[in-house]
Write a structure and sequence with these properties.
single chain, two-stranded antiparallel ribbon, mainly alpha, 5% strand, rod-shaped
Length: 138
């Protein structure tokens, strides 16, 4: 009787050890894959951001913010380029904002031109780094 009880305790302990090892392995796999996916998504979005920034003629955008109506044509052309980038990158939105946090141009009708830029409220530190020229890492 005693040996049978000892055998059950040993089997239960082995089962718990195996369960703990499998759980630790799955948690490690989850964390590693989450970090790798987050890093890949960050690099992808950073690449799209660099491409979008390269498309922008800052003089034209600045002229538009000063009230130059002919620069509005440039923004329409830029919106067409951004729409292509949006589709190619399988994104929901690309928004161009002025430094004060107001929307200058958006690719989707739901984005209110002149209203607050919704993305800036989500991650102020990342926006600050981005405005300073650095890529956001998170």
């Amino acid at each position: 009787m005693k040996s049978k009880r000892l055998w059950y305790l040993g089997a239960a302990a082995a089962y718990l050890i195996i369960l703990a090892v499998v759980t630790a392995g799955l948690l490690g796999l989850y964390r590693a894959s989450r970090d790798q996916l987050d890093r890949a998504l960050g690099e992808r979005l950073l690449g799209i951001g660099h491409t979008a920034a390269a498309l922008i003629d800052t003089d034209q955008v600045f002229s538009y913010t000063l009230g130059d109506t002919t620069a509005g044509i440039y923004l329409e052309l830029l919106e067409a380029d951004f729409l292509q980038l949006l589709r190619a990158g399988d994104l929901a939105e690309i928004t161009l904002c002025v430094p004060e946090g107001r929307v200058l141009m958006g690719c989707q009708p739901r984005v209110g031109v002149g209203g607050p830029c919704a993305g800036w409220g989500r991650g102020r530190p990342a926006v600050g780094r981005g405005r300073g020229g650095a890529g956001a890492r998170g």
